[in-house]
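[Automated response] Your request has been received and processed.

Submitted sequence:
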Amino acid sequence: MRYQPGPWLVSPHREEFERIGDVLLNLDAESLALAKLAAAPARPFDGMIVYADGTNWNPGGGEGIYAFYATVWNKL
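Generated structure:
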């Protein structure tokens, strides 16, 4: 889904937001850095991916990367 600035946004800001939208649309990342969380997110949603610290917040399998789906955190 491409970002589109609202119709109320006027030049030169509109052009800058369109350039930012183009960069986000064409993002080609080789890696992703997740912050280590010490507590569960307040509003998890299907498809959310997080890094649990395994001590203060242990979703079930210790420290690691988890995905939220089927109403539970699943270790990847």
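Summary generated for your ticket: Strands lie at 36-37, 49-52, 64-69, 72-75. The CA atoms of residues 51 and 65 lie 4 Å apart.
If you did not submit this request, please reply to this message.
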